[in-house]
Structure prediction request, 233 residues.
Amino acid sequence: MNEKKIPYELLIFLFGSVLTYLTVYWAVPNLSEKIKIMELGSWMILAPMTIFIPLIIIGFIILKSENNGTKLFERIRFKRLSKSDWKWVGIGLIGMTILSGLTFYLTNLLNLNPNPPFSRQVHPWQNGHQWMFLVWIIYWPINILGEGFIWRGVLQPRLEKIFKQNAWIVCAVFWGIFHFAFGLGNLIVLIPTLIFVPFITQKTKNTWTGIILHATLSGPGFIILALGLMNKQ
Prediction:
């Protein structure tokens, strides 16, 4: 009898979750203690090096191993956005915005902190903390494009071949596991993003749709964090 093996693509999600856990609970507090900065600043400095760049490298190794002659942008589904793609982006943004409001309300009812551990003590950025915006300008595109590349561009097309129409569900679950270190409250808030991004990426077969959806909510969300508007009193 042949035993069914877990697709190694899913193991990469789990590897990313381990990197995230170590970064959130070990590297970030240690760096913040050593150089006396807010943990959000430490996260933005460390995460590209400890999480996203290693995952990007793994993505390129996978692409090289495929060796199927497909052009890079075609393989990772970086395509020109069609009218239909933009329609789905619009549907996703509306759905994510409405449902994110409901999930925030749910975390409040459950008395859960919606912030990741490294941003629970963020206060309005002033008195010398403006440099963190400059760090964010580097961190943010590495985060958004890095996750879009590895999860949506490299792994999701492979998982669609394995799980067919249910691939987006698998991607949503394992993307959630990747964010496990951010805490239950943050995971609940992320549920709309975890669902809509892989679903619409699969629907459109265009990685850019997922990247735009992820970026559109992530950018304003960061500004809210930076201004200390999400802190639970």
Q: What stands out?
A: The chain has one domain: 8-58+111-226. The two ends are 57 Å apart (CA to CA). Residues 8-58+111-226 form one domain. The CA atoms of residues 132 and 180 lie 25 Å apart.
